[in-house]
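Lab notebook, bench 4. Still working through the backlog of constructs that have no structural model yet. Next entry is a single chain of 355 residues. Request: give me the structure tokens for it.
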Amino acid sequence: MNLLVTGGAGFIGSNFIRQRLLDPTSAPDRIVNLDALTYAGNPANLADFASDPRHVFVHGDIGDTALVARLLTEHRIDAIANFAAESHVDRSIDSPEPFFQTNVIGTLRLLNCAKQHWSTLPEPKKGAFRFLHVSTDEVYGSLGPTDAPWNEECPCEPNSPYAASKAASDHAVRAFHHTYGFPTITTNCSNNYGPYHFPEKLIPLMILNALEGKPLPVYGDGRQVRDWLYVEDHATAIWLALTRGRPGETYNVGGLNERTNIDIVTRICSLLDRKSPRPDGRSYAVQVTHVADRPGHDRRYAIDSTKIRRELGWSPKEDFDTGIEKTVDWYLTHRSWAAEITAQRYARERLGTRG
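Model written out:
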């Protein structure tokens, strides 16, 4: 398989590429990694594969139709995994337009190029081609405390500009399958965490701020609930959906780990107290600072992963306790990775949290 991965220098995309290249049983022959390197894209995420001939990095935008068309033909692409997206809720509230430009128009242009490429393929390559679109649970809206988790039949009720742009892209992907017979698959995941997570997101922000002696900002009462999915488990689910999923289907991918934001922060403080204690001996919890809640903050997300478990045999390997400890350990041993991003990418920008 020759695979085009869009947004492959970002958090989830780079973990997916890393997992595929390190798997000796099912590694693609070639992965073409197309990334625009906006604020969250970082070539350092895959620096150890820079000389690997199976990994071809291309700096470019999914909305550049000439570039995408050339890559599809030149590299004889057999499948596409579309991770490319603007994904930070706070940024979408401050400035919605870039989210619709990338997530909606960019996805539409990518779909058009991919459909044209697919239409020229001979059988059996045409029958085997797949376009996998990576989306989010946020398209479903917000749940009450006792509501059942979302399944694939739940309606889209997005509540932020980010979620609305992703819902629109999901609809475009669905429409291309039903209108043209184009073999698309969509995955909607819960909150990811793990190595290479951009430092403005909740978990890495709390780890890094704690170590730097900065406040740990928690929105409102901190009782917002999210389902947390370790990124490597998500990467495995994407590969299964891409290689074994049914065209036209949507698969929800959740971690079965519902936690409140304040519980997440408390757990991180506890781990750091043990692994890297403060010089004064006090708990990192003293740095927790409650700040004004963000506009339209969804109260609870939860995913029902029954379908992907039943049809594709997927289940997460990490529970939250094992996953969060691995994540804290990774950031403790990769302080220079985060420091470089902080210094070069967004030192003068407002920090926020996803949650």
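Notes after review: The longest helix spans residues 97-120. Residues 37 and 244 are 30 Å apart (CA to CA). Flag for follow-up if needed.
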